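Dear H.,

Thanks for agreeing to be a second pair of eyes. The structure we're designing against is below in token form, covering all 95 positions.
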């Protein structure tokens, strides 16, 4: 479970915060603006070396992103940021 302030979930007024991120993701994928979570998972799952523990939909610099948190084989938590429009991995870093 994620702990944080609601404002941390919305980027510069986009989205509706923590409670609305799944609604935003669904609405954007239904309108064709972004890929669905299942489509993105098919693209990035082979690149994730570990167990996914959390997925968030958010905006970063005005770009819709999926954030995947996962535990790698060494037991470290990593974050992978994926462009929700293309499925391209933007970055993969230690949390």
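And this is the sequence the design step returned. I haven't edited it by hand at all.
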């Amino acid at each position: 479970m994620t702990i944080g302030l609601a404002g941390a979930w919305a980027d510069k007024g986009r989205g509706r915060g923590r409670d609305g991120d799944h609604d935003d993701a669904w609405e954007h994928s239904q309108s064709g603006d972004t890929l669905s979570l299942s489509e993105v998972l098919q693209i990035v799952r082979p690149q994730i070396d570990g167990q996914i523990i959390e997925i968030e939909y958010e905006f970063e610099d005005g770009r819709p992103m999926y954030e995947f948190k996962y535990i790698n084989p060494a037991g470290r938590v990593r974050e992978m940021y994926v462009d929700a429009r293309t499925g391209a991995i933007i970055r993969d870093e230690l949390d």
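Two observations from my side: Residues 15-94 form a domain with the Nuclear Transport Factor 2; Chain: A, fold (CATH 3.10.450.40). The CA atoms of residues 41 and 50 lie 13 Å apart.

Warmly,
E.
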